């Protein structure tokens, strides 16, 4: 596997992202966003922790950490390597989502670009900036005037919901507390449309 697509290793953090084939839409209505999250919880989260996400009409971003293989649920597979298991779960996830969307839209062929993108995050100093980058994507792409109002990202959930499928406690530890979480997002809005933010998260 090339350096562009690093293996998904136990205990490591990753920025996972991909877009629709030919940059086409992957979400067509509000139910699609909810269905994507439902399948994510069912297929991926038994094998990974989720820290933030943003779902946009033609692409998505996830910030995850792969669980230890001792935390994996029982699964039948000839290849017992954790890298194969997690990669295969992502394959199942994308296929299961695409099948429903293809049927809904009476379309055929690949919904997503081949080989979903992933970047291993090796320096925890990027964690806060990556979370901000993911949350700010809707504003960056001019889908909304203020990303803090965008309904299909984890920004609202981290700040408001007590019981969440996100690793909220760990997230707030990185920022210090919820007030610092909000302050960090407020201060860094000026970075949204410039290249410096992409450099910070090593995209």
In short:
With 203 residues, the chain is α+β, with helices and mostly antiparallel strands. It has helices at 30-44, 82-105, 127-140, 155-160, 168-175, 178-187, 195-200; strands at residues 13-19, 48-56, 59-66, 117-121.
How is the topology of this model organized?
Blueprint: E1 13-19, H1 30-44, E2 48-56, E3 59-66, H2 82-105, E4 117-121, H3 127-140, H4 155-160, H5 168-175, H6 178-187, H7 195-200
Antiparallel strand pairs: 1-3, 1-4, 2-3
Helix pairs in contact: 1-2
Gross CATH architecture: 2-Layer Sandwich
**Proportion of helical residues:** 40-55%
- How many runs of DSSP E, i.e. beta strands? 4
What is the straight-line distance between the termini?
18 Å
Q: What name is given to the CATH topology?
A: Alpha-Beta Plaits
What is the N-to-C succession of helices and strands?
EHEEHEHHHHH
Walk me through what this model shows.
By secondary structure, the chain is of the alpha+beta class. The chain has one domain: 2-Layer Sandwich (Alpha-Beta Plaits). Helices cover 41% and strands 14% of the residues. Strands 2-3-1-4 form a 4-stranded antiparallel beta sheet. A hairpin with a 2-residue loop joins strand 2 and strand 3. Helix 1 runs antiparallel to helix 2. The protein is globular. The chain starts with 12 loop residues before the first strand and ends with a helix. The mean pLDDT is 90.
